[in-house]
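Support request, please re-run this one:
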Amino acid sequence: MGDPHLRTSVTIKLPLISVYIATRNRESLLQRAMSSVLSQSYPNLELLVVDDASTDGTSRVLANWSERDPRVRFSVLSAPAGAPFARNQAIRMATGDFVTGLDDDDIFLPQRLELFLSHWQTLKPDQDKAFLYSQTRAVGPGGAVESRMPAQATVDLLCVSNCIGNQVFAPREAFLSAGGFTEGLPAWQDLDLWLSMMRLGLKGHLVDEVTMELDASPRGDRISDQARTRIEAARDALLARHVWLSHAQRRDLYLQSLSRHYNFDIRWRDVATVWRLDPTRQTTRRVLSLWWRRLRGR
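Re-run finished. Output below.
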C-alpha cells in the first residue's frame, strides 16, 4: 500500500478560449483592446488579430506584441476585405474550445472570460447548443450607461433590436456551423450571425454581469454615423437571407432600421413596405407607436 500521506499532484486542463479582433487603422485603440484581453483573470487563452490592410503602424504593433507574448497570433491582409472577412479569418485561425470576440475600440473587463466559462459549466447537458452574452457599459462624453439585456434572447426580441450586442461566447463549431459573418454585409453583421445561430437551434443565455466596456465616443467611422443607404442595404440583405422568419419578425426587422438609434425619417414607402410584410392590426399599432414616439422626441 502506498503512503497515505503522499500527496498526488493532479493537473486539470483548462479549456482554451480564443479571442478574435479585426482591426484597421486604430493603432492606439487596438493596443488598449489587446491589453484588456491579455490581462484577463482566466489564463488559458489565445488572441487572434487580423489587420485589414492598415496603413498606420498596426502591423508593427502586432509583430511586437506577438514577440512578447506567445498567446498572440496575427495575420495582415494585403488589401482591405472588410470586418466580416477579417473576423472569419481570425475564427479560422482559432484553436480554442470556445471563441469570443472584441471590437478594436472596446475593452474586456478583467473577469469576462472567467465569468463566461463559469456560467457555461452551469448549463445542463441538454443546453450545450447555446451561446452566452453579457451586460455591457457604454462610455462616452455624457458618462457611462449600462445595458439592460434580457435573461434569454429570442428571435422575436432580436428582430425588434439587437438585444445581445456585438459579441457572444460559444464553442468554435457554433460560429463555423452558422457560416460565420456574412462577408460584404455593410452593417448588422453581428445581428445576422446571431439569427443564423438561432436558426440552428442555439439558445442565447445572459451572464448578468458587466464584462465589457464599449467606446461610445462620437466618430465618423461608426456604422450608426454612416449613410442611411448602408443600413437599408444591410436590412434588405438580412430580409433576403432570413426568409425563414415569420411575417411579424420580418416586419420588426424592417422597423429596427427606423428606430431612434438611427433617427431616420419615416417615409410613406417605409410604411407601405412594412404593411406588405405583415398586413395586420399589430403592424398598424407598431407604426403609429413609432411615429408618436418620434413626435414626442422619445
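Confidence is low (pLDDT under 50) at residues 6-10. The CA atoms of residues 188 and 234 lie 6 Å apart.
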